[in-house]
């Protein structure tokens, strides 16, 4: 049950710009992509999975917005 609750409560984000990964631990995405399974790393960075591609990695927090 806790896993189900977590699924429904997790925040989803939408990319508001294109981003090309600058390092192997980062993830690329396109404007409009949905980012899921997001964890805040610090003020500037998050970790998440791009729903369209299935790829996951670090991403800049100012390139996405909560939906």
What does this structure look like?
This protein is mainly beta and 67 residues long. It has a single domain (11-66), classed as SH3 type barrels (Roll), CATH 2.30.30. It is built from one helix and five strands. The chain has one helix at residues 2-9; strands at 13-15, 34-40, 45-50, 56-60, 64-66. A five-stranded antiparallel beta sheet has the order 4-3-2-1-5, with no helix packed on it. A hairpin with a 5-residue loop joins strand 3 and strand 4 (56-60). The model has no long low-confidence stretch (mean pLDDT 90). One of its GO terms (cellular component) is cytoplasm.
List keywords for this structure.
67 residues, mainly beta, SH3 type barrels, 5-stranded antiparallel sheet, 1 helix, phosphoprotein, actin binding, cytoskeleton, Lasp1_SH3
